[in-house]
């Protein structure tokens, strides 16, 4: 199952470029992760979860974002 990162990213108003910059990776690397071509590192998953919480998506888990 494909992760839902792109939907959540757009919901909080961030571009792939902004997320890549936040994670200190290239836009191409980020795009490949979002498409499921390469996996997100655990530290990236935690960062994304915390970014969503900061932007008002409370009570979200890594499982909600990446696995459910």
Tell me what you see in this structure.
The structure is a single chain. With 68 residues, this protein is mainly alpha-helical. It has five helices and no strands. It has helices at residues 5-11, 16-23, 27-34, 42-54, 62-66. Helix 2 (16-23) packs across helix 3. It starts with a helix and ends with a helix. GO terms for molecular function: DNA binding. This is Transcription regulator. It comes from Staphylococcus aureus.
What attributes does this structure have?
DNA binding; mainly alpha; 0% strand; 68 residues; 5 helices
Content-based structural category:
mainly alpha
Distance between the termini: 8 Å
Radius of gyration: 11 Å
**Whole-number mean pLDDT:** 94
Helix content: 55-70%
Q: List SSEs in N-to-C order.
A: HHHHH
Quickly count the domains: 1
Strand content: under 5%
Low-confidence stretches: none
Query: Shape, please?
Result: globular
Q: How many separate helices?
A: 5
Largest sheet: none
Count of DSSP strands: 0
Task: Tell me which oligomeric state these chains represent.
Answer: single chain
Organism: Staphylococcus aureus
GO molecular function, one term: DNA binding
Protein name: Transcription regulator
InterPro entries: Lambda_DNA-bd_dom_sf
């Amino acid at each position: 199952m494909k992760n839902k990162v792109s939907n959540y990213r757009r919901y909080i108003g961030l571009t792939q470029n902004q997320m890549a910059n936040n994670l200190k990776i290239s836009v191409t690397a980020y795009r490949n992760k979002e498409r499921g071509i390469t996996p997100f590192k655990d530290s990236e998953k935690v960062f994304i979860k915390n970014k969503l919480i900061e932007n008002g998506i409370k009570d979200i888990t890594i499982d909600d974002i990446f696995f459910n």
